[in-house]
């Protein structure tokens, strides 16, 4: 679970740890907390799941807008499975609702790493922009997600391809690349080596633990 | 002596005698049970005689409950009750509590315990009517009220196995109720009215309330913390928690919550319930085998649904190894069939996880897996028709999901289109793994090379270069998983779970494979021990 909320307020912590999480009166606290997450570009999956849990048990409380915001937030956590974990808590009639279907199609594109297609879809219809409008920094978060995946996989990638993944051009692109500490040389972006993109052959050697030897050492005493 | 009355030899002889009389009676009763959910409960023929053996059994049973003779109760509960069931009540319910009440001086506590068995037997062997379901729920309420709402800890001791079964059955009946509540098609008006007017019966909140109350009363979480970090156990346990009855019920309730949340599709919360329980051989759950199996099944399943396949594989293979090693102990258990079924389901889940995240297994487990699911495994690994195999295995091995709320009885339209919760979960899960359907093929090609150009590999795979790039990105992401190392079950670091890794430099793929060096240690250790034995034998002969 990426970007786990490090600064989870104490109220929320004790709420999700105890039986209070089942108390329908607490839904407003969790909803407000979500609003803060949306405004401050923070993300706390556990708290959001607790809100969905309350909806699951008390369908009359269900607030579609909140659910959408939670799902939009979960989109930014791909490749973590957060979006699905949220879907499991909803019901079938809820997820065939148009807005949630739209978000699910975006999720599928992200999960399938079809980034260019993602932006194409996203830009094709203003309703998408509207769906994510409550989550500030949504596009930035998605671009960071793309950057994470690209840097896991590549040491070098062509500018043109990366631009299509990021839906960025010109100065915006240059600024983004700089922010990531990547370098551009002859229309090729150089990505520094990290533990995921270095692909080194490793031979895993056997590690014999002391406990395995106790019996043998026991014998040697007898001799 | 009571014992003499149902010695095994004796039993065999008598069964012969009663079978003919029994059968005619059975067919009569059976017509009554026919369809599930008929309101009229399976009533006993009014003037039914309770056989003397049963009378004696009940008196003996009652006396041992009064004396808190856990040792005897163990046998009564696990052996005698089941034998007598097979003999007298294979196809009809046990005598109703009211009928046996004179035998036990109208002891209400005993009658509640007896009803627990009575209804459990109906659920297991017959089909419970709606009324049985309601009464059984009320009986559980009586039982838990008695235990939880007394001024002092109640003076009652029951075998661990029974305590586990109480919690297990309570949740089973809850799940069974949730599933049957949604099938409104063939219900009578009367039954629908009954369901509509009693939404609190078997509601999620009431079930959770029971489990949480048992946890709180027993202070089991405090006790587990002391166990882990040290401290004063007596103080942590308190007056109630130091009694085995409370302690074990509290502990089993934690496992119960793991299960309930899993059934509801809340996998993170399910694992969170286990915060204070460490998964190891010393844990309390390992004292009761079905509890042990249940724990690992739900932990493993939750991990799988959270895409933490490596952790799921570890959970499944740990418990399957354990079951294999202890086979001789539970083949005799009255719950053997259930354990065997759960194990079979876990092998199916394990096969899925292995296909999704290729991992080297313990040899023993691997052989068993190939025996049971060899065909399916190779299909999933080769990507032939794999989605159908995944779907079949998932359907067979997943828990019976529930939806927490009943249908809306005010809205007839919604009644007819209620969707099975299984469909919902299966759809999301299958959609998720469909995204990685190409990985096995891709993997088999990558294994052959150390460097390869994207265009060339794309031509081999008969796809365009852009599609291949996409698949490579998926491959990379799916080979990284959160994996537990220490702490509670939800924690973990993101690590690579694949022996095959690669990086892309513009249009070239550079591939690296991790190799596992040969393992010598085990071989040497085994042979040292063997020689030692040979030497010992030789010396003994001198």
UniProtKB/TrEMBL annotation, chain A:
Keyword Cytoplasm part of the UniProt annotation: yes
InterPro entries: ARM-type_fold, CSN8_PSD8_EIF3K, eIF3k, PCI_dom, Transl_init_fac_sub12_N_euk, WH-like_DNA-bd_sf, WH_DNA-bd_sf
Main location: cytoplasm
Keywords noted in UniProt: Cytoplasm, Initiation factor, Protein biosynthesis
Subcellular location: Cytoplasm
Assigned GO CC terms: eukaryotic 43S preinitiation complex; eukaryotic 48S preinitiation complex; eukaryotic translation initiation factor 3 complex
Protein name, as recorded: Eukaryotic translation initiation factor 3 subunit K
Organism: Mortierella isabellina (Filamentous fungus)
Taxonomic placement: Eukaryota, Fungi, Fungi incertae sedis, Mucoromycota, Mucoromycotina
UniProtKB/TrEMBL annotation, chain B:
UniProt cross-references to InterPro entries, sorted A to Z: eIF3l, PCI_dom, TPR_rpt
A Pfam family assignment: Paf67
Keyword line: Cytoplasm, Initiation factor, Protein biosynthesis, TPR repeat
Signal peptide feature range: none
Family that this chain belongs to: Belongs to the eIF-3 subunit L family.
Subunit (UniProt): Component of the eukaryotic translation initiation factor 3 (eIF-3) complex.
Annotated protein name in UniProt: Eukaryotic translation initiation factor 3 subunit L
Organism: Mortierella isabellina (Filamentous fungus)
């Amino acid at each position: 679970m990426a970007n786990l909320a490090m600064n989870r307020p104490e109220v929320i912590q004790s709420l999700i740890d105890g039986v209070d999480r089942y108390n329908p009166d607490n839904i407003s606290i969790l909803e407000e907390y979500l609003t803060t997450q949306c405004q401050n570009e923070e993300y706390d999956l556990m708290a959001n799941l607790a809100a969905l849990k309350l909806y699951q048990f008390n369908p009359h409380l269900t607030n579609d807008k909140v659910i959408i915001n939670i799902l939009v937030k979960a989109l930014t956590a791909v490749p973590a499975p957060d979006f699905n974990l949220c879907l499991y808590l909803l019901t079938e009639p809820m997820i065939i609702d148009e807005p949630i279907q739209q978000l699910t199609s975006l999720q599928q594109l992200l999960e399938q790493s079809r980034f260019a297609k993602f932006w194409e879809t996203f830009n094709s219809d203003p309703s998408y922009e509207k769906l994510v409008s409550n989550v500030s920094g949504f596009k930035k978060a998605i671009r960071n997600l793309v950057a994470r995946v690209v840097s896991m996989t590549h040491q070098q990638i062509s500018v043109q391809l990366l631009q299509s993944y990021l839906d960025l051009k010109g100065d915006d692109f240059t600024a983004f690349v700089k922010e990531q500490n990547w370098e551009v040389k002859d229309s090729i972006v150089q990505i520094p080596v990290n533990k995921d993109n270095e692909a080194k052959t490793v031979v895993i050697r056997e590690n014999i633990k002391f406990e395995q030897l106790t019996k043998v050492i026991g014998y040697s005493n007898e001799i | 002596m009571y014992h003499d009355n149902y010695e095994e030899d004796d039993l065999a002889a008598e069964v012969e005698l009663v079978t003919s009389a029994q059968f005619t009676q059975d067919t009569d009763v059976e017509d009554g049970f026919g369809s599930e959910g008929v309101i009229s409960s399976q009533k006993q023929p009014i003037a039914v005689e309770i056989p003397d053996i049963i009378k004696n059994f009940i008196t003996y049973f009652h006396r041992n409950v009064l004396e808190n003779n856990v040792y005897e109760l163990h046998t009564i509960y696990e052996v005698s009750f089941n034998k007598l069931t097979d003999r007298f009540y294979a196809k009809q319910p046990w005598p109703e509590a009211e009928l046996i009440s004179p035998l036990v001086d109208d002891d209400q506590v005993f009658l509640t315990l007896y009803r627990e068995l009575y209804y459990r037997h109906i659920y297991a062997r017959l089909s419970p009517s709606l009324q049985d379901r309601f009464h059984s729920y009320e009986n559980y309420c009586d039982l838990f009220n008695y235990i939880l709402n007394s001024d002092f800890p109640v003076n009652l001791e029951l075998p661990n196995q029974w305590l586990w079964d109480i919690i297990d059955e309570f949740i089973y009946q809850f799940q069974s109720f949730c599933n049957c509540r949604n099938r409104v098609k063939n219900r009578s008006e009367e039954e629908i009215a009954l369901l509509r007017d009693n939404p609190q019966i078997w509601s999620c909140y009431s079930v959770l309330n029971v489990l949480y109350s048992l946890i709180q009363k027993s202070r089991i979480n405090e006790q587990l913390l002391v166990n882990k970090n040290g401290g004063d156990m007596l103080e942590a346990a308190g007056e109630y928690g130091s009694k085995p009855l409370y302690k074990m019920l509290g502990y089993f309730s934690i496992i119960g919550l793991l299960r309930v949340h899993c059934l509801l599709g809340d996998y993170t919360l399910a694992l969170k319930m286990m915060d204070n329980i460490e998964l190891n051989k010393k844990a309390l759950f390992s004292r009761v085998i079905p509890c042990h199996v249940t724990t690992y099944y739900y932990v493993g399943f939750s991990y799988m649904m959270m895409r933490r396949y490596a952790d799921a594989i570890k959970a499944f293979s740990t418990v399957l190894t354990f079951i294999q090693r202890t086979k001789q102990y539970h083949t005799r258990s009255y719950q053997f069939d259930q354990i065997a079924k759960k194990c079979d389901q876990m092998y199916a889940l394990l096969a899925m996880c292995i296909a999704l995240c290729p991992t080297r297994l313990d040899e023993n487990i691997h052989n068993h897996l190939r025996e049971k699911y060899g065909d399916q495994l190779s299909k999933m690994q080769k990507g032939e028709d794999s989605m159908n195999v995944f779907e079949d295995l998932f359907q067979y091995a997943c828990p019976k999901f529930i939806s927490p709320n009943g249908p809306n009885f005010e809205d007839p339209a919604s009644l007819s289109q209620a969707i099975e919760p299984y469909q919902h979960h299966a759809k999301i899960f299958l959609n998720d793994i469909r995204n990685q359907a190409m990985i096995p093929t891709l993997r088999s090609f990558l294994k052959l090379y150390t460097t390869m150009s994207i265009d060339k590999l794309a031509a081999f795979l008969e796809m365009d270069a852009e599609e291949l790039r996409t698949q490579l990105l998926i491959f990379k992401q799916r080979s990284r998983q959160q994996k537990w190392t220490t702490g509670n079950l939800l924690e973990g670091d993101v690590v690579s779970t694949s022996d095959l890794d690669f990086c892309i430099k513009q249009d070239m793929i550079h591939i690296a494979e991790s190799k596992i060096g040969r393992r010598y240690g085990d071989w040497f250790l085994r042979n040292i021990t063997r020689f030692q034995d040979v030497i010992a034998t030789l010396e003994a002969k001198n």
